[in-house]
Amino acid sequence: MTGLRYWQVVAVGLGLPGLFCSCRQSPPDIATSPPSIVRAAPASLNGLAVIEQVRRFLEVGPRDAGTPGAGRAAGYLLGELQRLGIRAEIDEFKEVTPAGRKVFRNVIGRIGRSGGKIIVLGSHYDTKSGIGAKFQGANDSGSSTGLLLELAAVLKTVPPQETEIMFAFFDGEECNVSYSRNDGLHGSRRLAQMLVESGASGNVAGVIVLDMVGDRDLTICIPHNSTPGLCSAVFAAAHEEGVRSKFSQSRSEVLDDHVPFFNAGMPALDIIDFSYGSAPELNDYWHTEADTIDKLSAKSLEEVGRVTIRLLNNLLENKKGVAR
Question: Taking the domain 37-317, which CATH number applies?
Fold first, then answer.
């Protein structure tokens, strides 16, 4: 379905040179004129293309962290990023878990200029272990992984001039027993630590984590433990996109991949719909074999994707940064 992807760019700050000026007026000094700021248009993101990304990713099969399936998934993601012409790598590391020492693989892609401001777009790609042989994890974590791949495809066509966009596919988000220092959030904790130790965490303008974003009854609920400035920015982006009613903020905290960055002082946000079930307010599809691709909506994926692009554009234009 590659033909379903449409591209366009938005030029911000372009001036219309003196329509009523005398023809004797001196031409502008090109050397000192400010450069045009080119951004991805939200309409570039097509929901059917995202569904196709999810479908192809799910064909990889089970991808529990530390298994050969997770290794295949990491290889697939690396190949897709490289196919798009995005510089990408696998960061492989080992950690002790309640199930023994495991190998984890973060897949990291980058566009834009390195050495300055950084914006991280993240999704975990692993699945919960022990659910059953037919478990697809279509929404958790297929939906966000497919959306992140399509966002990479869109944003690659108009990379930012002054900012590095990092596409982070996290391994080991799911816990084996219960979330703790050695159980769950392995990949995100690893990247957050690397940013801190390299001194780059101070350049991070925002970490935007996507998780469970494909439900037909889209009800994004931003957890309380997200950076307030980013919460305001995502609500503004949702308003601009005409879907503000589908975005709200919870009074509760959620333990997800944004937390290691948030705890390390980086602005972080979790875009998550934790009401995924057979009726409103239920979550009875989550972590069950009912989490299949037929439960996903191209419309929901498109709405979240377009809001994410608007949010990203706003962060790129915010020279002052988000309060931490």
Answer: 3.40.630.10
